[in-house]
Automatic annotation (TrEMBL):
GO terms for molecular function: homoserine O-acetyltransferase activity; homoserine O-succinyltransferase activity. It is an enzyme of class 2 (transferase). The active site is at S150 (nucleophile), D320, H353. Pathway: Amino-acid biosynthesis; L-methionine biosynthesis via de novo pathway; O-succinyl-L-homoserine from L-homoserine: step 1/1. It comes from the Bacteria. Homodimer. Pfam families: Abhydrolase_1. This is Homoserine O-succinyltransferase. Its EC number is 2.3.1.46.
Amino acid sequence: MSELNLSRNTIHFAEPLPLQSGAVLSGYDLVIETYGKLNADKSNAVLVCHALNASHHVAGPSPEDPTDIGWWDNMIGPGKPVDTNHFFVIGVNNLGSCFGSTGPMSINPATGKPYGAEFPVVTVEDWVNTQARLADKLGIRKFAAVMGGSLGGMQAMAWAIQFPKRIEHCVVVASTPKLSAQNIAFNEVARNAILSDPDFHGGNYYEHGVVPKRGLRLARMVGHITYLSDDDMAEKFGRELQRPNGESNDYRFSFDVEFEVESYLRHQGDKFSNYFDANTYLLITRALDYFDPARRYDGSLNRALAEVQAKFLVVSFSTDWRFPPNRSREIVESLLSNKSEVTYAEIDAPHGHDAFLLDDARYHNLVRAYFKQMRETQV
């Protein structure tokens, strides 16, 4: 098994970027991490698109912190399902994020201050346009695959629609062709928690030297509930009370932490509020809301996918109630109606939406076999 060959770079783009909102960014940076080696004809590149709170750091230990392991490390690396002995994998931090790419925390060259609330709203389609410019800079004419889970899967789908000739395979995991009203509602509750935090200051909290941590904590708690299945929560926590050794297992009759699941959610919220940016959370959840490639085709997903040329792998998980299997089947049915080549798998896993990040032999073996076949077809 060879080394991961991790490399991190910040790429500057001086050419103005028109956004779907009508705003224009005069220039911007994207932080990327690459793994493996690009072959001579640059045909083995795989773009990995991240979900809400992830980043360019996809696999292996971070160069700055060896305890910080990439968010999809069980999927990508030497000998793993997406084998970096054969594929050159690119992780990119999306525009508007808070992990080095240009976003609300960045300095606005027009004012000399952080963009804050002035950073424009971005969409999935905007991200894909920046990723295409990145491919141009790297000399990659066509990706062997673009893949992602959840919001990352939306980006992969948008790639197949926006740049049909530049993507050979599209891997969409635990995703959806558009959010349901319920999903938009969850996002709105989370955003409102941030917007109503007194430390938010209309998005310009950087100038006040504060962070809207209370809002971020609540936003993360709401989101995290939707990532887990009821069965998974029951197995992990049940109705167990949190009690130190020796303390009575009776109710305290208080509004402090009583149940273990409460302690877990508060821990997740606290951790999130220490590393994520509130403005970025608002931007990315709104990008999730807006994604609907069928909208410009009078609601027809069949028509939206009519021009795609990529072969698809679509994966869903039985207990994912955030993006349930029937939403993945919508994608599959539209692809089949267009006579596109598609492989679909519904994995019976107990972990809810988070299953796409976790170890599951059936899921990983499927992806491994798909990429192995892809590699053999290229030879």
